[in-house]
Amino acid sequence: MSVSKRDYDAVVIGSGPNGLAAAITMQQAGISVLLIEAKSVIGGGMRSAELTLPHFVHDVCSAIHPLAVGSPFFKTLPLEQHGLEFIYPTIAAAHPFDDGRAAALYRSLEQTAQALNEDEQSYLKLMKPLVKDWPRIVADVLGPLHFPKHPIDMARFGLKALTSAAYLAKRFRSKEAKGLWAGMAAHSIQPLSNATTSATGLVLMIAGHLGGWPIPKGGSNAIANALASYFVSLGGTIETNFYVRSLNQLPSSHAILFDVTPWQLLQIAGYKFSSVYTWQLKRYRYGMGVFKIDWALDGPIPFTATACREAGTVHLGNTLEEIAASEQLTSEGKHPEKPFVLLAQQSLFDASRAPEGKHTAWAYCHVPNGSEVNMTEQIEKQVERFAPGFRDRIAGRHIMNTAEMEVYNPNYVGGDITGGIMDLGQLFTRPALRLSPYKTSAKGIYICSSSTPPGGGVHGMCGYHAAKKALRDVFHKKATVIY
Ligand SMILES: Cc1cc2nc3c(=O)[nH]c(=O)nc-3n(C[C@H](O)[C@H](O)[C@H](O)COP(=O)(O)OP(=O)(O)OC[C@H]3O[C@@H](n4cnc5c(N)ncnc54)[C@H](O)[C@@H]3O)c2cc1C
Description:
Layout: E1 10-13, H1 17-28, E2 33-36, E3 48-49, E4 58-59, H2 66-69, E5 86-87, E6 91-96, E7 102-105, H3 109-114, H4 120-141, H5 151-161, H6 165-168, H7 175-185, H8 197-210, E8 215-216, H9 221-233, E9 237-239, E10 255-258, H10 262-269, H11 275-282, E11 289-297, H12 306-309, E12 311-316, H13 320-331, E13 341-344, E14 359-367, H14 376-386, E15 394-400, H15 402-408, H16 424-427, E16 445-447, H17 461-475
Parallel strand pairs: 1-2, 1-10, 2-9, 6-12, 10-16
Antiparallel strand pairs: 3-4, 5-8, 6-7, 11-14, 11-15, 12-13, 13-14
Helix pairs in contact: 1-9, 1-17, 4-5, 4-8, 7-8, 7-13
């Protein structure tokens, strides 16, 4: 399919949170933008669909949104006026153990700490200053590497964030605090002994205390729809069902921003790049993949621990030691018998997701990049372990291995959902070591996906920063939204 021959100031390829954020940032500055999407529906990692049975609405990719609600850019947008409503589960995240008890991340810092018994003070000592500093440093943390506005506050966060989760866990004595921490840090999709795995854990916990871990009413596509509606209200144009394979397919424009990962960018625009930049992109590393299941259920998941029955997210991995072993094995190319499972139960808090009395659940575990092993049995065993009787409630099931993930969205290379591993070597210099990570070596071509800082998740900050750079370089304009 081809677009009309009208010229645009800028073209954005890919309508994930970052593509949409880039398109909005440019359109807000008075630049005419065409946003192109390969699929028939916009949204990238923010889509919802009836994957199992009729009237059961599942989130195909992202489900839980501490990063969207805490995004400094999204906060400036009138998304509520465009139909977005966040629902806040009673408990952000719960973490059950084999003894039937559970630790939990509550909105309240004090309540979370109190439930950790002997680690109450250790938790407060770690988290209280970080939660207090966060509003001053969030824009610096969720952006490219640069001299921060509040260097002392930033150093307080950075020195802890740069450590491995295994190292930081030594502050705690109880299995509850260690387990809760390991579940948070395992969102980094890396062995917990890797430097910087604490960054992910800390960001998620701070976000939980400040803004909660909400779900969008109706499904994650509600975020995409609100962003798209706002973009169109500004005068932006969206074209779907248009898979870009070559720059020749595009209408003329002054700038092109790609919401894709480096290897795709090389295929589409590689001939425009310098040999050094091409060499850098070819060396870009993708991380572990995911195996995902969605269930239609005849009733809520019968978790033994009360906190799990009241939580939007449940981390299934028991102790720090078990989670660390599972992530380590996966990084070595193996498939653990007891994988760390991230589970969400949206319909407990959003009745629009399932018929009355019925429920949905969403879960995934990490697997080696490119794995085609079916992890259904291992994942369901982990749920059954903490919720005996769970299997009897399964009415429908939909699975996706890493290959199916990549077919669904080419940005999930080998099933990697964060646009490339976010380890020390790639956290700040994704996708390449350059003065601006968003600028390619070709004039007017930018990359704005989660393969740029600050990385994976639904927050739009990669797109915002890439657009800001393109606005300055190409159009000599400033982004309207500045914080
Ligand atoms: C199973 C799963 C669970 C997740 N859970 C969460 C969660 O709970 N919370 C959270 O914050 N994040 C979560 N994420 C991660 C989050 O979805 C991603 O980090 C985020 O969507 C990345 O945004 P993006 O804009 O960089 O790219 P994407 O969202 O991947 O969007 C890229 C878009 O570009 C399009 N595209 C690609 N190539 C082309 C092309 N050549 N031509 C035209 N269009 C193209 C794609 O179709 C896609 O729509 C999850 C992801 C997955 C897969």
